[in-house]
Structure formats: structure tokens, C-alpha cells
Amino acid sequence: MTATTAAERAHDKAVAALIASYAAIPAGSQVRLAKRTSNLFRPRTSGPQAGLDVSGLDGVLSVDPVARTADVQGMCTYERLVAACLPHGLMPKVVPQLKTITLGGAVTGLGIESSSFRNGLPHESVLEMDVLTGDGQLRTVSPEQHPDLFAGFPNSYGSLGYTVRVRIELDPVRPFVALRNVRFADLDELAAAIGRIGAERQWDGEPVDFLDGVVFGPGQAHLCLGRWADSPAEAGVAAASDYTGQQIYYRSIPDRERDCLTVADYLWRWDTDWFWCSGAFGVQNPVIRRLWPARYRRSDFYHRLISLDHRFKVAEKIDRIRRQPSRERVVQDVEIPLERTPDFLRWFADQVAMSPVWLCPLQLREPAGPEAGSTKPWPLYPLSPGQIYVNVGFWGTVAIIGGRADGDVNRLVEAAVAEHAGHKSLYSDAYYDRETFAAVYGGKTYAELKEKYDPGHRLTGLYEKAVGRR
């Protein structure tokens, strides 16, 4: 028996267990995945729900270095996927920045990273997938098979079905990523630079393979330009940097014009400190950092701490004791058209005043999905082909003052995103009414898909998952 055959047989057994767990749930009962971890920043739907058995569905089935594809189980994390691909000199076309995001989660939700300005979003590199739909059927889905579900699956957040196997395209890698950090004092100049890089894939004669950036405050923004390299010397530095220990990646950006990371360290450069959010736990304090075990310097561990705080209201109780105002959680990623991004950032600095802010340009790949030529190839998150967007990510809390209530700032953000012709990811808190939500997130198409693939509404609906029963 070959290793591949053994993996396939184990996969078939795990899929059979998943289907059996679905069949064992009484008709009419809602179901969900039986998993303890999540990268979502909104509470799960309340109420009793039976869990589907997803054990044995968290690995890489095979990597084909000739075809540059991988067959991956739906619950496989990108950490495991990258570890399986790099020995073949390959990586997924888009690797979301946090290690424990799953491939299935990135396909049914959304993912993004610094290769997105040329490779789009993770679902665009999917060739086919096996989906357990809400009616209990296992379907192979591709541009040729069930093309409506293939197009409508991204941004459905498990409300139409769950992926058990995904076949994706891969890209070749080189050993290192050379970084060049370019400062901009003017947001309009920064946006113009993003437009040129998106069109030319170069800056000052150097190729650009990766592109993201950080706004630290008024007049201080940086684009982080990455290109493949075979050695640190080719990157113009003496040695590769290591930001998994005492050094903190985001703090290096204003201080280093040139830098270099191994490809693995580059892909996970944000995970060690959860961008800059580890500071909320004191981990950026040099004394605490030395004492904090390295195995716990990970985004998933910080997320568990946040979940415990949300459950037991620790920070809220401390604020009350200190007679400090309550705080509203503002954790969002939004896509804004490039030409509107400077105005949005200025609005954000004035109305929300949170920093740093992450910037990640993206545009859909061409041809764009199964409906090439359409202006809405992925109807549940309709970005326009040919349009450069900038993902603006901001994660933190603001004081609830001036007569405001919890949720008011998030509502202001939603309104500003709409005013700037943007879109908002649904992994975090959302406040839309049903009519607005349907208009933004492909409501008519979604309703048709829901009736076709989950007619019994066994899976929680998208609005109920993302917004709740408001």
C-alpha cells in the first residue's frame, strides 16, 4: 500500500464518519461543525446545535510538484499546508497571515495576504472541492460541476455546506523574501504607488512579488515590498532577520529600509505577535517577552485569551474598578477601492483614531472565476475585476464616550465603507439590517443557493451567522 493510497483511504473513512454524524442528527435540527477552535471575532449562534464529526479531516492528502497542485482536507490549517508544500519548493498562491486559519475556512470565508495584489483571494486558486451541503449530500464542485455553488460558496461561511477536500493551485518559491520598506508622508502618494506597482509589478526597477503596508499615524505610512531572493546578500543585507524571538516584526518596518526573511518566516511574520495585538497582553514588553514561552507567541493562543476575556468580562470588570469607560471592540477588515482609500483612511483617523492600520492591496485574478467577463464573478462578495482594492485592517477597542453605545463605532464604519464603495468581511461583528445585508452580499443569489442545496435550512443562515437575529 502506498502512502498516497493510505491517506486516501483514511480520508474516505473520515468522510464516511462525517456523513454518518450528519445522518444521526434528527431531521429538522440545525447542525454545525464539532470544533473547538475558530478565527472568528463574533460569537457563535446561540442555541442547541449538534456537531458534525470532522476528526481526520485536517491534513494534506497529496502535493503534486509537477502539476503544482495540492489536495487538502477542509480542516487543514495553513500552517500544516505550508509545511507540506515548502519541501517541494511550492506554496499556496495566497497564504492568509495567521497559522491556524483553515483552508476550508479561507474558501468559505475570505482570506488575504501580500500576494493578493497579483493572486487575488484564496478561493480563486481552487480547482475543485468536495462539499457536504446542507441537504446531507456530498458533491464535487468545480467550474464545470455545480458551477452555481462553486461561484456562490465564497463568503457563505458554512451556511451552504462544508468543504471536506479542496484541490488548489500552488506557486513556486525561492529560499528568501527580500523586503524594502518605503515610507510615505502623503496618503494620495501612497495610493498612486500602489496603483503603479499593481500595473507594473515593480518599484524603482526592482520586481515586487509581495505587497502590503502599515499606517502608523498621520504622515507616517509604509509600503512593504517583497521580492524573491536566493540569499540575504541578494536582498542587500548580511543575514536574515528572525522575528519569532525578542524582535517584533512591525516595529522593524520604520527602522529598516532593507530586510530579509526565510520564506517560512515571511509567511508567518505577522503570526508571532498577531500583527501588533500581542501588546494587549504585555508580550511586547521585553521583560515579559523573555518569560513568555515561545510556543505561546502565536495568534491562536492570543485568540483563546480574547475568548476567555469575552466570556468572563475580565477587562470590563477591571475598567469598572478603575472607573474607566467601557470599551467597544472594533475588529474589522474592509476592502476599499484604491482611489477612495486615502479619503477612507483620513475619515478613519478622524472618527476612530486607531493605529496602526494594516493595508493589503488586492485585485481579482483574470479570468475572474467561473463567470469570466462578469462584473460580479463571486456573487456573495462581489468585487469588480480589474479594480484594485485595498484591504484596511484595524483591530482593537475604543472607549464608549460622548453618549455613544456599544456598537455605534462599528455602525459608523459600516456606513463609511458603503459611502466609499467598499465591502466588509464578515468574520467579525456586523450590524446590518436584513435588507442592506442582502443588497451587499448577494441576497437573491444566496437565497436561491440556500433553497437548492439546503432546502431544510439545517445549516445556520448567513445573516444569522454574521449579524444574528436582530
Can you describe what's shown?
It is a single chain. Helices cover 31% and strands 23% of the residues. Helix 13 runs antiparallel to helix 14. The protein has an eight-stranded antiparallel sheet with strand order 14-9-13-12-16-17-15-18. Strands 3, 4, 5, 6, 7 and 8 form a six-stranded antiparallel sheet that branches. The longest helix is centred in the first third of the chain and has 21 residues. Among the domains are: 170 residues, Uridine Diphospho-n-acetylenolpyruvylglucosamine Reductase, domain 3 (2-Layer Sandwich); 94 residues, no CATH class. It is built from 17 helices and 18 strands. It has 470 residues and is an alpha+beta fold. It starts with a helix and ends with a helix. About 2% of the residues have low confidence.
Blueprint (SSEs and pairs):
Layout: H1 3-23, E1 31-33, E2 50-52, E3 60-64, E4 69-73, H2 78-85, E5 90-92, H3 103-108, H4 116-119, E6 126-133, E7 138-141, H5 147-152, E8 161-172, E9 176-184, H6 187-200, E10 202-203, E11 206-207, E12 210-217, E13 220-229, H7 232-235, H8 249-252, E14 258-262, H9 263-267, H10 286-291, H11 299-312, H12 314-321, E15 327-337, H13 341-351, E16 357-362, E17 389-399, H14 408-419, E18 423-424, H15 434-440, H16 443-453, H17 462-466
Parallel strand pairs: 1-2
Antiparallel strand pairs: 3-4, 4-8, 5-8, 6-7, 6-8, 9-13, 9-14, 10-11, 12-13, 12-16, 15-17, 15-18, 16-17
Helix pairs in contact: 13-14
Q: Going across the major beta sheet, what is the strand order?
A: 14-9-13-12-16-17-15-18
Describe the global form. globular
Biggest beta-sheet profile: 8 strands, antiparallel
Number of helices: 17
Structural class per helix/strand content?
Answer: alpha+beta
How far apart are the termini? 54 Å
The radius of gyration is: 22 Å
Low-confidence stretches: 368-375
Mean pLDDT score: 93
CATH class of the domain at 3-172: Alpha Beta
CATH architecture descriptor text of the domain at 3-172: 2-Layer Sandwich
Helix content: 25-40%
Strand content: 15-25%
What is the third-level CATH name, the topology of the domain at 3-172? Answer: Uridine Diphospho-n-acetylenolpyruvylglucosamine Reductase, domain 3
How many E strands?
18
